[in-house]
Amino acid sequence: MLRSACVLLLALVVSSVGCGRAGPGNEEDDVPVLTFPVGVEVLVSVGECLVGSPPLRVCPDEDVETLVSVSMSGDRIELGEQRVEAGAALIRMRAKAEGRGRLTVEYLDPSGTPHTVEAWFQAMTVTQTRVSVHCDEFGYRAVHPVPAGSRFGFDLQASAGDTSLTVGDVSLVDAPGFVLTQQVDGKGEARAPAEPGAYSWALVGGGTLEFLVYAPEMLELTLTEEPARAKQPRAIVLGTTAGGHSVCVHAPGEKATVTAAGNQCALVLSGVEIAGPLPLGLAGRAFRFELVGRETCDVDARLSDGRGLTRSFSAGGVEEGTPPVVGSVIPDGGTELVAEIPRGGDCPGSVSDGKCEYPWLLDGDCYIDSDWRIEHRDPVPDGGVLGEDQLVGVGLTTKLLLSLELGLSPVPISLGPPQKLTFQQDPAWDWTVFPPGPSAGLALQGGTCVGSKMVLTVKPLAEGTHGLEFHAANLDDTGELDVEARKVDRIAYTLRAEAGSPAQRGPSVELFVRSKATVAASYTRANGTVLHGIAPLRVATDTPEALSSVSAPDALASGAVPHTLTVSSPLGADTLTIQVRDASAITDIRGLEAQTLPGGTAKCVTALAPLGVGGVVILGQPPTRPRVALSGDSLVFSRKAFSDGLCLEGIAPGKSTVHLTWGSATVERAWTVVPASP
After folding, report:
1. Residue 575 in contact with residue 495, Cβ under 8 Å?
2. Chain mean pLDDT for the chain
3. CA distances from 378 to 244, 318, 341, 564, 617 (A)
4. For residues 549 and 556, is the Cβ–Cβ distance under 8 A?
5. Could you give the count of Cα atoms lying within 13 Å of 458 in the half-sphere of its Cβ?
6. How confident is the model at residue 12 (pLDDT cuts 50, 70, 90)?
7. What is the pLDDT of residues 407-443, one digit of tens each?
8. CA distances from 508 to 148, 511, 564, 588, 659 (A)
9. How confident is the model over 366-385, as pLDDT tens digits?
């Protein structure tokens, strides 16, 4: 049997218009060719290419310490200011006309060693200029509304036909009434006129960009509904318009306040319920939030001057608190959780019958050698193949996968399962009694197949080294396996709840009502040595009417009311006590701390955790949401709060207090907003 292998070769071609690796060669092909627009002053960096470097750059292997000379071939590209900064030579240049020039830079590195760097520059006439106002994209927008006198950033893209060009300065646009300031190549800042009205930017290469400079009284709020998509829930969207055009650029500090009225109506951000009004900053795009309640809720949105609107929306339902049920309800007296090991079905035939028979030339068994493949595995999730030095616990079940494979093959080639399998045990000796004698041995079950492998379960009944010998009709050889078994001395339990809460180890854990979880046990000797295998677990309740339930192999649902669950094993006295709690058991909240942040920036709290007595995290799905309120005028909720956690943004210098309530716990933290850096 031959198994072919195919090798897939991938060729990755990476190109960049604005950046190249410098080379000293004498031919044009030896050095990078960088393109830029005619008539635009550009800044070229020659040195280490770091994040934040100008987009037009040449990257030699050595830093620049001292600039010796700079020259450009031809007369179409003029050189301007030249300086060395942070290990790079910064060179200004401008093209008077289309054409190509060769830049040659001679410099000394920090050790004083001389180097020469060369690069070709191609000046091309701009045929199209595109502008993106910050918080927008390079897409079509008929009109850009901006507040009178406001400052906003923008990006520039230029091209010559199909060739993208590195952009230099703001000379690519003519913006009457606006004051434009160059920041770095391809980026600029604009200050809008103080007089409201319609304005237009003329773009090099043709075309215009239309602006509506609006006065504060022209700003209007909108409320719309956005359906759920992917992992994002249904949202109510607060937007702004001016002159009928959606607004992306707002005046600094512009904010709005949203409230909800109706039967159990509330605004929700990332699972946190807003207690009272929701103050939010209008910087950037639309603001999204969830709406919960019964039937219909009235959402009211107001600007700082009191103008706004009210709209009615159908609300997402309020959770009724019906407990989830998995499998069967735990009865009085408890029930067992038994992990079933998949055993498959009837075994297929084997490629080999193990006999070399006439006609010998046509019988592959006359030419190949077959061997046993015996895999001893721990059936726990992610349990691997057990090595010879790994121990199995007495009373714990592991599994064997038996198959035949082609001998002397560089890769495993299965010949199918053993046929007419028989086995025998070598007696293990029990040295814990006197006089020593044979132990009870192993309990084996199975003989069906999963695919081409036969499955057996193995459970040691006593300590010792248990030897197994396997025989099959289609292999004239003996398969051997030793199982080292030791008594279970300790059992440790772990509970892992859904809803993203961390796993906790016993002997006692806390779990919210109406939550799902999985329970697992691990087994060790007294000295901590791991024992492999699985065994049934018993789960009991002190309140059967709580309707807690279990499902094999490890699932558990905590029921409707507080009560106590106990998990135990027939292999030892260790137990796991699960205290099922409601919201009144929350005594503290972890994750909210005092913060200091510059104005215009946001910070997010992403790991709020409800704590019980002693500061232990209560696992599972909390029966109530945390509720947050703000006092003070320095903070608003950030747009990020819809999906990124409890996100607050500094809108004015000063102090505000964040009040967080969850169940019976309340915490308050002071957040200080300091002036933003100039």
Report:
1. no
2. 86
3. 67, 44, 10, 31, 31
4. yes
5. 30
6. very low
7. 766 677 778 899 888 888 877 665 555 556 566 688 9
8. 63, 10, 10, 19, 31
9. 656 778 999 999 998 878 89
